[in-house]
Amino acid sequence: MYGDDIASVLISEEQIAEKVEELAELVAKRYPADAPEGDLLLVGVLKGAIFFMTDLAKKLTVPTQMEFMAVSSYGSSTSSSGVVRIMKDLDKDIAGRNVLIVEDIIDSGLTLSWLLRNLSSRNPASLEVVTLLRKPDALRTQVDVMGVGFDIPNEFVVGYGLDYDERYRDLPYIGTLNPKVYGGK
Ligand code: 5GP
Ligand code: MG
Ligand code: MG
């Protein structure tokens, strides 16, 4: 539906669905259904993680609650500076809760490491991360994550929540963009 904007499908809808089930099993094992800290709190990072977050929550066999945060990192649209601004904060206090950050993609890791520092200062009972995608070759800082869906090459990807200039989030798969979209030839 986007003409020839998508150069290739990197991860299909079926592959994503399978991986989400695997990750849901991993997450459910880590958290008891009747934890004294109460329901697991999923913190989704807007907007990229929305599909992953909702698909994951539906597959989890432990009760969860959902909160969302929006952060924006200064820098160009395709690279991160590590200087992060909160555009939308959590609505609830997370002190004493089991918190699981749900991320779309770890690129340099700078946004996530900032977020981990920020959220851990609010004294959650536990703080973990699950990310659908990670680019190992782009990592600039070490971040410990409980679950990773796919390690992918250092290429700009869109779809399944991920955008370029707010477009392509609605694609059910993860794909690479034709360079003509961002002004290349
Ligand atoms: P980091 O701070 O890890 O470098 O970047 C994190 C954020 O940059 C991601 O949450 C995402 O919003 C954006 N980003 C990084 N790589 C990609 C990519 O390949 N495609 C898209 N659409 N966004 C990306
Ligand atoms: Mg993100
Ligand atoms: Mg984006």
From TrEMBL:
Transmembrane segments: none annotated. Residues 20-164 form the Phosphoribosyltransferase domain. One of its GO terms (cellular component) is cytosol. Its cofactor is Mg(2+). It catalyses: IMP + diphosphate = hypoxanthine + 5-phospho-alpha-D-ribose 1-diphosphate; GMP + diphosphate = guanine + 5-phospho-alpha-D-ribose 1-diphosphate. This is Hypoxanthine phosphoribosyltransferase. Keywords: Cytoplasm, Glycosyltransferase, Magnesium, Metal-binding, Nucleotide-binding, Purine salvage, Transferase. The gene is hpt. It comes from the Bacteria. Its EC number is 2.4.2.8. GO terms for biological process: GMP salvage; guanine salvage; hypoxanthine metabolic process; IMP salvage; purine ribonucleoside salvage. It comes from Nocardia aurantiaca.
